[in-house]
């Protein structure tokens, strides 16, 4: 450093002054005195060289540091310029977005005003429709016994729903539904299961719980369909014949009908839905609740009511774990599907394996490609001839 250099210089000056001013004990007139002086000056000269080397090293070090700081300063300056350009571009972009949002807000306000006007018009139309038909009174007749407490009516109606759930299964998995919950809990607690397939062949499968998304609240907005009618109070007979008879009857203008677009049987409720091409036919037919239709040798009185369209306006779900169903994963494709499924069912039916009575079993096998089969044959040390006979069922399944 600069302070260090001045200190060294001061020391050197002090040494020189001391050596020049101070008196030597050696006699310069004698040979020994001269030699002693020469050694003394050689020693001082070596010290001066060392100090000069230190000063030179310090100078080089400071020059390197100066270059490093200069480069760093240049990099920081360049980075600051880039940041400045970037932030300017970002500010410009945000200003464009802000202007777009302001325009969007203006458009939404206009749209909101239009929607409010349409809502008022729709409310007026709905009030007129409610006076014409009570939606829930148009349901097919069903005998029931009321038991419970009386309370104030509200605007909502409760429906009992049976959801139809589709559960995605990956390849190499199986779903087992036991008759008892305790068995499923025990299988899940054991988790890893060794299944004996015979001939010293065993596979290890893992039991996992099955979680489903179940609806907890469903709110439906309903309206009367202008082109459909719902036909109930039907006799037990061949479905196709009944649909044809109903379609022929309600397609005739003398019966108040018209051209039929589609006729569908609903097996859950045992009713039939007829869709007409024109819109005014359904309303005309529902004005008369009961119609006599020749479905067999004699006429049968059926009930014709409006068809209710429903639109889900609110749906809330909850996660529920199946108490009697277990998912098995990691099932390899080591034999044909039917045999492997039987072996798995036998294993999990045995009490000794922690199982019990099985109510349902569904197995989705792992489908291997030809390349995967060849690689598996290599891993087992099979030659090319043996690989041709290796797991033919899997090869057929994979094509």
TrEMBL record:
Q: Which organism is it from?
A: Characodon lateralis
Enumerate the transmembrane spans. none
The NID domain covers: 174-261, 272-360
Q: InterPro entries in the record, alphabetically?
A: Nmi/IFP35_dom, Nucleotide-bd_a/b_plait_sf
Source organism superkingdom: Eukaryota
Write down what this protein is called: NID domain-containing protein
Q: Which residues form a coiled coil?
A: 24-58, 91-132
Secretion signal, residue range per the UniProt entry = none
Which keywords fit this entry according to its UniProt record?
Coiled coil
């Amino acid at each position: 450093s600069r302070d260090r250099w001045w200190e060294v210089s001061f020391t050197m000056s002090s040494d020189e002054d001391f050596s020049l001013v101070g008196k030597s004990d050696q006699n310069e007139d004698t040979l020994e005195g001269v030699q002693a002086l020469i050694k003394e000056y050689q020693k001082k000269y070596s010290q001066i060289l060392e100090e000069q080397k230190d000063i030179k090293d310090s100078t080089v070090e400071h020059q390197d540091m100066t270059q490093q700081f200069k480069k760093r300063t240049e990099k920081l300056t360049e980075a600051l310029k880039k940041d400045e350009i970037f932030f300017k571009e970002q500010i410009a972009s945000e200003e464009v977005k802000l202007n777009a949002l302001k325009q969007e807000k203006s458009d939404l306000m206009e749209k909101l005003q239009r929607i409010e006007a349409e809502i008022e018009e729709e409310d007026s139309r709905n009030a007129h429709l409610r006076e014409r038909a009570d939606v829930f009174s148009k349901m097919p007749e069903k005998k029931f016994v009321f038991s419970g407490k009386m309370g104030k009516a509200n605007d909502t109606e409760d429906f009992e729903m049976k959801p139809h759930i589709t559960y995605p299964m990956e390849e190499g998995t199986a779903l087992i539904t036991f008759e008892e919950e305790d068995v499923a809990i025990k299988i899940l607690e054991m988790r890893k299961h060794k299944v004996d397939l015979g001939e010293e062949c065993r596979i290890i499968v893992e039991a996992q719980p099955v979680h489903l998304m179940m609806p907890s609240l469903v709110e439906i907005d309903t309206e009367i369909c202008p082109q459909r009618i719902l036909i109930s109070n039907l006799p037990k007979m061949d479905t196709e014949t009944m649909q044809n008879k109903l379609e022929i009857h309600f397609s005739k203008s003398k019966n108040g009908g018209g051209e039929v677009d589609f006729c569908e049987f609903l097996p859950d409720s045992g009713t039939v839905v007829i869709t007409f091409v024109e819109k005014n036919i359904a309303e005309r037919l529902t004005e008369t609740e009961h119609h006599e239709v020749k479905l067999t040798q004699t006429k049968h009185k059926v009930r014709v009511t409006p068809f209710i369209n429903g639109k889900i306006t609110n749906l809330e779900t909850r996660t529920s774990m199946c108490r009697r169903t277990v998912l098995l994963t990691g099932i390899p494709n080591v034999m044909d599907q039917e045999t492997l499924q039987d072996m798995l069912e036998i294993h999990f039916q045995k009490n000794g394996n922690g199982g019990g009575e099985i109510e349902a079993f569904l197995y989705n096998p792992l489908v291997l490609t030809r390349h995967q089969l060849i690689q598996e044959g290599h891993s087992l040390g099979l030659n090319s001839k043996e690989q041709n006979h290796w797991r033919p069922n899997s090869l057929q399944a994979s094509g």
